[in-house]
Amino acid sequence: MDIKKELSKLLSAHTKLEEEQINNLLEIPPNTEMGDYAFPCFSLSKILRKPPVVIAIELKDIISNEIKEGTIPFLKEVNVINAYLNFKINSETYAQNILLKKPTFTKKNLNVMVEFSQPNTHKEFHVGHLRNACLGDSISRLMNFTGYTIIRANYIGDIGTHVAKALWCLEKFHKNDEVPDNKGKYLGKIYVEASMKIEENELYAKEVSEVLQKLESRESEVVALWEKTKLWSIDEFKNIYRDLDIHFDTWFYESEEDIEGNRIAHELLNDKIAELSDGAIIVNLEKKNQGVALVLKSDGTTLYLTKDLSLARKKFHNYDIDKSIYVIDSRQSLHMSQVFSILELMGFNKDMIHVSYEFVSTKQGPIASRKGNVYLYEDLKKRMVSKIIEETKKRHTDWDEEKLLSNSKIMADSALKFGMLKIDNNKEIVFDEEEWLDLEGETGPYILYACARINSIISKAKEQNEHVSQRINFSLLETKEDIELLRLLEKEEQLIDESANNCKPSIIGRYALEIAQKVNEYYHKNQIIQSDHDLMKARLFLVSRAQETIKRTLGLLGIKTLEEM
Asked: What is the pTM (predicted TM-score) of this model?
């Protein structure tokens, strides 16, 4: 039974509102004592030409009589608080309705491309890159779960000054190095070294500029080194994505958008959308408060913006998409606004959304590869896993090395991903390794522990395999703690939908945490394993359903759970 639907039918029969209108107006009261659902009567005041409180009282009297006559068996009682009609549902019906229902979404005939991660080759992949990767991955999972067809795209920054710096340093100072197995990490260190050397000696900047010119003019010797070293970075990225359980359906490269970007720049000039300024091609967007956009430099060099114009058209033309989502940090907000505005001036009116997010910093300040003050992903992950193994050994002396490693990796992943996703996109994240691993804090490991704790309770219950719906007495779930947990579980579908529509994984991240906290509170206040088998089965079913919800919501964040910890 869909209680909201039944309430909508009931109220529609006694008012002049459509069922859909009523369904949209129904609320969940702020506390359980007020009721399970509430209907505000303000919207009926103009229709019925009566004060909303009077309308509420009249409806209450009518519905109360129907309850007494037994024609509405799912309703226990109805009362009025201010101008709200508050309904208390029969406890058995209420619990059954929530516990036997799973979130379902209709298939949408919309293809959406989510572009995310976008690391630069020849640079280190550090903890700061994780926010984008985790955010884009979770948005993709959420939208796919709610019915969209998702194409995951990665746009690699494989050309530019940063590449020239690494190639210059590699050739000038490390030409005879024996390259280690982890070539990507090695290359990232070369880039950091190059940045430091250029800061110390300004003459080196000219040498880097010469390398960049050779690269842009595609001189064979430089191109050969560039293509070889680019693969070092790509291989490292793929290993990291594999470790994070993140995949992409297509990969774009900045270097591939040069020619088409240049053509678009001249197309804009010919169509009088752009103009010449000291030999450069610009688009004046001051009327939109977006300043002047530089599309092509005076020396004919394209920019990131130029390439984004090219890539936008490629996405819609080659992949038959209906919407394009860009997961890019807030510092690029003006850039993205300029891209969208220029495309609009070109007559390219497509559904494009910039999902912005704030950057990740550490207690020592902002992360910057050129300064070398970074937590490299590979080093960080290894260190976290080692710490977790050390702690886990103290609790599980019987576990073999394989199980210790497997569980510890999942815990480390949960710490990193939940830490990146529990915070609203528009708030800065301060990475703190110790805090994110805390089993008692608002962390991924804390939620995993709540799941494992439920497994432990179920495994200790003698009738753990008997708590199936047909044998449950749902009417026994009537304590305050039962109702509070049920009400929380009832929100799942709504919050998943809200999280997907707003591209905010933090909504379900906080929800998963709230359930874990509520379950912890629940089994401390309610004895689950007990002699009353009917009550035990009902409570086991309730906490099992809570665990299922946690697993599902964490899965939408890209986080796996553990059977034991």
From this structure: 0.91
